[in-house]
Amino acid sequence: DVGRFRRPMRRSTEGQLMSLISLGVSAEVVVVAGGGGGGGSQVGQYGGGGGGAGGLLYFAAANISSASWVVTIGGGGAGGTHAANAGAGTNTTITAIGATAIGGGRGGRGSATTSQPTNGGSGGGVGGFPTQTAGTGTVGQGNDGGANATDTVPYRGAGGGGAGGVGATANNGTGAGGAGLTYFGNAYAGGGGGGSGTTAAGGAGGSGVGGNGATTATTNGTGSNATASTGSGGGGAAPVLSGAGSAGGLGSDGVVVIRYAGAAIPTASYTGTMTTSTSGGVTTHTLTTSGTVTT
């Protein structure tokens, strides 16, 4: 009616992700699984292999259209010890686009053949033992771990595979982790570096996010942990000169990143942990723990 005040419509400020569903926004999506743990090492001369990165999937124009969807963030694998194998990473899934990234393979233990690296999104690197076989990566998600084909005493660990490259072999030189891939200015899914033998330095982690391999020490040759929430592999352990051996570094948890043009249009909430940023007319949601989106 003339003269009556009409209140303008307001949008809810309770959440952000459902705008992708309600408006049919086409989004870039990066899905990264958890990285594998670095292999442990015994006292003596055998370095642990670097953990393989979690599988990485990139969608340039994903259409998220379901009204309720679940994100499961894969966990990083535990570092191995002188007596126990490292853990593999676990899968990351996002039901809205039917995507599953495969967890990274564990790094091989610096000891016997029963301590082999495993396959995964990217494969784990071999530990410093001449008859181990490198873990293989998943096609379209990652790469193989490094081998030690012609290495001699002291046997060094090889690098874990990364989303952007294979792990380096340890042919008389410690293996670096395979390169990761960079999206939106951040590196993801780098392989862990292999641990040293009794000489030389440990291998560098891939793209600065994989854990670094350790260097031989008197009492502590622990591999470095991977950078958090990048799905990278842990660094391999180095042998110690006394004590019970050393542990590999932790693989890091996976992540899901959703990015689209325009400001966030909030219409619902996410039950997990999510950070949101908007810059230059582009909104980025980074999901680092599991949760559910509902209308």
What does this 3D model show about the protein?
By secondary structure, the chain is mainly β. The protein has a 5-stranded antiparallel beta sheet with strand order 2-1-8-10-9, with no helix packed on it. A 4-stranded antiparallel beta sheet has the order 5-4-3-11, with no helix packed on it. β6 and β7 form a beta hairpin. The protein is elongated. The chain starts with 18 loop residues before the first helix and ends with a strand. The N terminus is likely disordered.
- Secondary-structure element order, as H and E? HEEEEEEEEEEE
What general outline do the C-alpha atoms trace?
Answer: elongated
Radius of gyration: 21 Å
Mean pLDDT: 86
Q: How is the biggest beta sheet arranged?
A: 5 strands, antiparallel
Give the N-to-C terminal Cα separation. 34 Å
Describe the strand arrangement of the main beta sheet, using strand numbers: 2-1-8-10-9
Query: How many beta strands in the DSSP annotation?
Result: 11
Low-pLDDT stretches are 1-15
- Share of helical residues: under 10%
- Decide which structural class fits the backbone: mainly beta
In short:
This protein has 295 residues and is mainly beta. Helix content is 1%, strand content 19%. The chain is elongated.
